[in-house]
Specification:
By secondary structure, this protein is mainly alpha-helical. Helix content is 60%, strand content 4%. It has seven helices and two strands. A two-stranded antiparallel ribbon has the order 1-2. A hairpin with a 2-residue loop joins strand 1 (3-5) and strand 2. It is elongated, with a radius of gyration of 21 Å. 16% of the residues are buried.
């Protein structure tokens, strides 16, 4: 629901996201695209928290992108987040929910993929062989076990750092 301040209605961030996503569905865009945008905006909402849309500032958006970078997300992934967030705020400006977009000064990010060399099979085998000793070296400290599991998981399925960082127990 919207809040009322000094006789005018302020839209909350969560409501703006909901209205924006409904507008995407009305435009009959692909399900893949809309679910991708919804996921990115859900991530943004979790970090920003619900507040009046007019209280979201450029600083908040920039801090969110710093968080994404520190989390290890690639520039291409961050470019996707930027595209979704810019689209949200541009939609809000066009519909008169806010006077300007707090995402208007985001730096341009590239979708261009980064090609990294994969580790050799011998290096991966050596790493896997070291996992049990690493997990045990401080009497199975939970942090060491977690790190060992992440390395084992990455070696088994080829997951990237950003994908591992994004994993949750509910996954």
């Amino acid at each position: 629901p919207n809040t009322i301040e000094k006789g005018k209605i302020l839209m909350l961030l969560n409501d703006a996201v909901r209205v924006f996503l409904e507008s995407l569905e009305d435009r009959a865009l692909s399900r893949s695209y809309t679910s991708s945008v919804a996921y990115r905006l859900r991530c943004f909402q979790e970090e920003i928290t619900d507040r009046p849309l007019s209280d979201v500032e450029s600083r908040d958006v920039n801090l969110y992108f710093r968080f994404l970078k520190e989390k290890g997300l690639s520039e291409g992934t961050r470019a996707g987040h930027a595209s979704s967030i810019k689209a949200l705020f541009n939609f809000c400006v066009r519909n008169g929910f806010i006077p300007y977009s707090p995402a208007q000064n985001l730096p341009k990010l590239s979708y261009k993929p980064i090609h990294r060399r994969a580790a050799s099979a011998a290096s991966v085998a050596k790493l896997i062989a070291a996992i049990p000793a690493y997990a045990a070296h401080r009497d199975y400290n939970p942090r060491d076990v977690k790190d060992a599991l992440a390395v084992s998981f990455a070696a088994d399925c080829g997951a990237r750092l950003g994908e591992i960082n994004s994993l949750r127990l509910t996954d």
